[in-house]
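Problem 12. The chain below contains 410 residues. Write out its predicted structure in token notation.
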Amino acid sequence: MKYLVLLCDGMADTPNVALNGKTPMECANKPFMDKLCETAEIGLCKTVADGLKPGSDVANLSVMGYDPAVCYTGRSPLEAASIGVDLKDIDVALRCNIVTLSDEKNYEDKTMVDYCSGDISTEEAHKIIATVEEKLGSDIYKFYGGVSYRHCLVVDNGTTDLGTLTPPHDISGKVIKEYLSKSENAKPLIDLMKKSYDILKDHPVNLERRKNGLNEANSIWLWGEGRKPQLQNFYEKNGVKGTVISAVDLLKGIGICGGMDTPNVPNTTGYIDTDFEAKTNAGIEAFKNGTDLVYLHFEAPDECGHRGEAQNKVKAIEMIDSRSLKLMLQYFENCGDSYRILIMPDHPTPLTTMTHSGEPVPYLLYDSEKPQKGNKTFTEATCKQSGNFVEFGPQIMDKLIEKNSLCKLK
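Solution.
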């Protein structure tokens, strides 16, 4: 038996005026998802438990079968694992976005223009982070380069008691003053952010981006604090070998911490310009090489949601369907093995709010050996109408791999 999780990050949404009162899932031409839906179990899954923030970290841990209330220590430590940072028990890791802020004189009066600096390239971003490390790094603070706008700060003997460090994608277009932590412990971090603006505003990378009319990477933004994560090995927990395919450090980090394979796939991004076929073929190769489960993650719908790009979000769903799911189904039909497919987002990213929400998400669970009566189309509404509801998010993985029927590992 082969298992596929097709994780469409942030795909779920609410009816939108720009889409004539429909959701992106309702507007998208997705014949392969809808064909599976006709003979699949569909329903809603609560991936974000009450009291937890609806981040991709919490939600994806849940879909992977981990209880975030038990194992979650923060977002950045998972990303740190992906970029090879070996955290000590006394270290605190923080996500270090490089963002675009407006040019008001006082830092507090600036506006969050762009949480991803125009989706800056990794090559450019590494030059920025190298300068930040040179000017602001020390025995206490160490900056590490990640992918695109996503990077990491490790604080030696740090604290996680930092008040509220707001994710930058939650405050697009807003003045940052009210979103800077008021905690005394956070003051040194806020000071690093302020100093970074003075260091980066005329950085050679930004001078070139300014000349080309691109958003500048003129400040770091620190959030997502946490300590070294402790995840149970995925194979020991579930009895199946897993592989995570993603362009996002967070997802790779979860995979690494869970002992799963996390191959690097060239020419992949977290946006609609990613190489959908390359990621899908990497998943197919993983199956051919003996993995039992592929967690194939696409960030594009989430990024489009954060940017309020209604048509691009529809396009992202359509490309996942036509350029990924189609290929994977062709492989399954010819591989000679039975298979089960779970298609779902981790959380909604509504276009109207441009940030995550914690509402239950639609899921589709298809079994090649056990077709059942489903629905003609895979949407938020049809999944709700089904009456199926997974209240405890981590149980969705148990449903996929039929964990109760697996033999216990010795």
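Discussion. The radius of gyration is 21 Å. Students who got a different answer should revisit the alignment rule from Section 12.3.
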